[in-house]
Design a protein that fits this description.
Elements (H helix, E strand, L loop, with lengths): L15 H13 L12 E5 L2 E4 L4 E4 L2 H4 L8 H11 L13 H13 L7 E6 L2 H16 L3 E5 L8 H6 L16 E4 L13 H18 L6 E6 L13 H14 L2 E6 L13 H6 L6 E4 L10 E6 H4 L15 H16 L2 H22 L3 E7 L2 E6 L10 H12 L3 E2 L1 E3 L5 E4 L7 H18 L2
Parallel strand pairs: 3-13, 5-6, 5-7, 7-8, 8-9
Antiparallel strand pairs: 1-2, 2-3, 4-10, 9-10, 11-12, 12-15, 14-15
Length: 450
Amino acid sequence: MLRDALPKIVTPLPGPKAKEIIDRRAKAMPNAIKCIYPCVIARGEGAMFEDVDGNIFLDWIGGVGVLNIGYSNPEVIDAAKAQTEKYFHAMMNITTHERYIELAEKMNSIVPVKGDSKKTMFVNSGAEADENAVKIAKSYTGRPNIIVFSGAFHGRTMMTMTMTAKKAYAIGMGPFPDGIYRAEFPNMYRKPAGLTDEEAIEYYVKKLEEVFVDASPAQYVAAIVFEPIQGEGGFVPAPIEWVKAVREICDKYGILMITDEVQTGFARSGRMFASEYYKEAGCAPDIMTSAKSIAGGLPLSAVTARTEIMDAVTPGTIGGTYCGNPVSCASALKLIEVMEREDYPGKALKIADKCMKRFNEWKEKYEVIGDVRGVGAMMGVEFVTDKASKKPNADLVNAIVNEAVQHGLLLESAGTYGNVIRFLCPLCVTDEQLEAGLDIYEKAIQKCIK
């Protein structure tokens, strides 16, 4: 079966069938929607997919975090099929459909936001979830401003492009909405020279507090928004002591703390949500967004908050035509059931143990690996020209990515400077597949540094 297969390349990439389709793509689609991988998927199972030429790939990208449960999980397929036989669409503003309510009830029971009574709304993408979280925070607080961070990625709508730090994603798109202010995110690998970790946390907390002086007084800030582990920013985890300080600042000034779990959610971090670590430490968020792996690949995203926050929203300002689509909701309900039953958070931790052991061995072995980091199975390896200078080495990363795919392993870059290789492999990957991927990865490193 494909789900148990190992990477296998049977024709030079791209193969003839793939090349024909990729050429059609170039004529039919905007060039701005790029793809660097020379393969065209025909079918996928587990962590593997086969392309139209019969090549078999191990996918460590997983649709950028969409496929935590893997390609084509049979139970999720059956749940979606069963719903399609009843109806495809029902808009909650027009007629109530029960799948939305069932999924909202489930999310309210498992999402670790502050409060005993919670409510959830559904939209269609991570960007929509983040934008609606901001709207909810503004409506609840009556305040106009938002604080975000360096390295952040929140989406490609006008609001979320503004919230996103890397402006390569927003070239030519201005002017941008007002009221978005940015603080420095705590990147412990690139902390100011000479500081201990404890001193660095104090430094980053002060940088956040400076925003109240330099940009927006605290009484005008509705929310502070951050990713528990930055995605596009380079898989940089937020230190728990910093999160505790952010929670204290929010409580002091009546600001809402929003965690963007679009990429970190659904077992990736070793918990169902990374914010569970915060709840355990007494610093749970007020609002949490989720998307990506929520429905196994169908469009769906969520915003969850305690009832008093949700019920303060001005009627008519949130919602939409396709929000909480019944087929997507049915898929999500089954996905959560499978993940809980089969302990997908535990799978993430086991994968992380194996990978981090190898990654740290590489860090000792290769001068070009500056840092290895992550939470659970959301891990990043940062490549530099040398350990002393920490100069980002994006050219090497691109070479490794291009070399690995030729041997059946899909890797993807990340980071402000494009010098991090991320790990988002489906959590159903087998031990043999994981070892095969690690071997291909290391051989690619060795070849590209010669």
